[in-house]
């Protein structure tokens, strides 16, 4: 066990706040607690596996894990809401570094122990010997303190520590980095609001091969793995595009071919700066991109590139903070994409051969379909993660095959009109699409409705709020929910569950939940 460092409260980032309020699903007594996102407890668990062959010095490896934690104390954090403000409490949880029996499945080690936001730990290392001179190290962390680029940092630092190299201090403390990021959000908020007002359409309609209804709920998931060949690179270089832009353009074009007239793809954009490039932590923001395909692929991809460049100016600003009106959800849109380029070679551990499982699947999904791509020196690995209750495996395999065929065709004829490319047939029933509706609840005691409405009016800084008004239509967001929960707790001695703001985010709906909890007291 690594011992926690002495630390104090820092303001959580807005990205952390959005994830925290999404996971907050209830409370016991007057003190808020967090539980895993309803649907699947592993949805925000980020696992990483490293296989070792050779005569490992086990004590030295366990000590190296401790050195990594000392360099990155954010891993020792917990989170707590105080008077409507979310704080990151560094040094309040130990990071377990343990030995275990050889597992039947590496994911068994990654799934051990709940990563609790309120009590910790938010990360753990587990080392197992799987055979003579064969070892498996599994690291798992909550996404709220760990992102995709953190994987490279963690493994690189672990290799250096095992080699006996001192780990230098970070350029700035994590709390200072978060303060800087929050300041950038405040500075860019007016521009981001204007930018997204004309672009965001909260459409949850989607058509895919084999799709029943689309979903934005976390759930147990499945995955289809495939490999993207050199066609991505062969397309990118001549057109002056990045490989990420080629993949994103192809995915959006494929959705268009299936019959999705509007189909925003939520993309993960890094918010790292020069000061935070060495940090383990959450420095990523999910933002939607929807460019309607037209012309040739080269022209369409150029439009995608231009739109991405416009988005980059506001990449630090969460969409819900820019606009309001965006309800908390596990993912912004039913289809999403994460792309990570790895330019570094595999890390070197003295005396050991190491192999890293960079795309270890946690067994959960946040929406209908997510394309994960890791582009490294050894090739471009791709995975489609999907919700099997909504999308059949055969349908997901069709998407993978269609995307691969499209990218091959684009590599051969990037300047061909998009209708001349190898696109699949339109999915039957695409004209209407299938949407998701949010249920609404009825009213309750008029005096209680008035009292809750007054809390909303204060939090949202409005002159008037009607009983049937939707929180998100009024511009509410995750911070508003936290403040409303805090005020209701302080004035009414009721701790609201998070789900009420999903099931019925109206004044009447919240008042009805207050009345229900009072009746149970």
Task: Kindly describe this structure.
With 521 residues, this protein is α+β, with helices and mostly antiparallel strands. The chain has helices spanning 14-23, 58-71, 106-110, 148-162, 174-197, 231-239, 243-258, 297-312, 319-323, 393-412, 446-460, 478-492, 500-503, 507-520, and strands at residues 9-11, 27-28, 31-32, 45-53, 78-82, 85-89, 97-100, 123-131, 134-142, 219-220, 222-228, 265-270, 284-289, 335-341, 353-357, 364-365, 369-376, 379-386. A six-stranded mixed β-sheet has the order 11-18-17-14-12-13, with helices on one face. Strands 7-8-9-4-15 form a five-stranded mixed β-sheet. Helix 11 (446-460) crosses helix 12.
Annotate the secondary structure layout.
Elements: E1 9-11, H1 14-23, E2 27-28, E3 31-32, E4 45-53, H2 58-71, E5 78-82, E6 85-89, E7 97-100, H3 106-110, E8 123-131, E9 134-142, H4 148-162, H5 174-197, E10 219-220, E11 222-228, H6 231-239, H7 243-258, E12 265-270, E13 284-289, H8 297-312, H9 319-323, E14 335-341, E15 353-357, E16 364-365, E17 369-376, E18 379-386, H10 393-412, H11 446-460, H12 478-492, H13 500-503, H14 507-520
Parallel strand pairs: 7-8, 12-14, 14-17
Antiparallel strand pairs: 1-6, 2-3, 4-9, 4-15, 5-6, 8-9, 10-16, 11-18, 12-13, 17-18
Helix pairs in contact: 1-12, 2-4, 6-7, 6-10, 7-8, 7-10, 11-12, 11-14
């Amino acid at each position: 066990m690594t011992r926690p460092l002495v630390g104090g409260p820092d303001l959580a980032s807005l990205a952390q706040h959005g994830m925290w309020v999404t996971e907050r699903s209830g409370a016991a007594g007057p003190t808020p607690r967090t539980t895993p996102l309803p649907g699947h407890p592993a949805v925000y668990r980020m696992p990483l596996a490293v296989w070792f062959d050779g005569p490992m010095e086990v004590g030295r490896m366990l000590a190296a894990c401790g050195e990594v934690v000392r360099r990155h104390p954010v891993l020792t954090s917990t989170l707590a809401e105080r008077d409507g403000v979310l704080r990151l409490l560094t040094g309040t949880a130990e990071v377990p570094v343990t030995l275990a029996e050889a597992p039947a499945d590496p994911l068994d080690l990654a799934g051990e122990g709940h990563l609790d936001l309120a009590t910790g730990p938010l990360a753990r290392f587990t080392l197992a010997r799987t055979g003579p001179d064969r070892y498996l190290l599994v690291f798992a962390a909550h996404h709220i303190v760990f992102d995709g680029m953190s994987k490279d940092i963690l493994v690189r630092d672990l290799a250096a520590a095992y080699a006996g190299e001192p780990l230098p201090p970070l350029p700035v403390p994590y709390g200072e980095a978060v303060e800087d990021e929050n300041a950038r959000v405040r500075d860019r908020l007016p521009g981001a609001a204007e930018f997204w007002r004309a672009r965001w359409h909260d459409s949850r309609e989607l058509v895919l091969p084999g799709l029943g209804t689309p979903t934005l709920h976390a759930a147990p998931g499945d995955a289809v793995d495939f490999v993207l060949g050199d066609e991505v690179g062969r397309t990118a270089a001549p057109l002056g595009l990045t490989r990420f832009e080629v993949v994103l353009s192809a995915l959006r074009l494929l959705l268009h071919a299936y019959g999705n007239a509007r189909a925003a793809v939520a993309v993960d954009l890094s918010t790292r700066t020069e000061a935070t490039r060495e940090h383990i932590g959450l420095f990523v923001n999910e933002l939607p991109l929807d460019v309607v395909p037209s012309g040739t692929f080269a022209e369409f991809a150029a439009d995608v590139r231009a739109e991405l460049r416009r988005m980059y100016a506001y990449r630090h600003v969460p969409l819900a903070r820019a606009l309001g009106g965006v309800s908390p959800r596990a993912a912004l849109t039913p289809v999403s994409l994460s792309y990570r380029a790895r330019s570094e070679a595999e890390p070197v551990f003295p005396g050991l051969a190491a192999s890293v499982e960079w795309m270890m699947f946690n067994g959960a999904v946040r929406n209908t379909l997510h394309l994960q791509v890791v582009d490294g020196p050894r090739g471009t690995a791709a995975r489609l993660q999907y919700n099997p209750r909504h999308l059949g495996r055969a349908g997901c395999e069709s998407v993978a095959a269609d995307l691969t065929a499209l990218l091959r065709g684009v590599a051969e004829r990037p300047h061909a009109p998009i209708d001349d490319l190898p696109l699949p047939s339109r999915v039957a029933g695409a004209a209407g699409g299938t949407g998701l509706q949010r249920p609404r609840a009825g009213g309750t005691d008029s005096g209680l409705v008035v009292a809750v409405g007054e809390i909303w009016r204060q939090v949202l800084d409005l002159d008037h709020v009607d009983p049937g008004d939707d929180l998100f239509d009024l511009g509410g967001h995750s911070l508003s929910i936290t403040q409303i929960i805090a005020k209701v707790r302080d004035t009414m001695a009721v701790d609201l569950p998070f789900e009420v703001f999903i099931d019925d985010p109206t004044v009447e709906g919240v008042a009805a939940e207050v009345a229900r909890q009072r009746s149970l007291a």
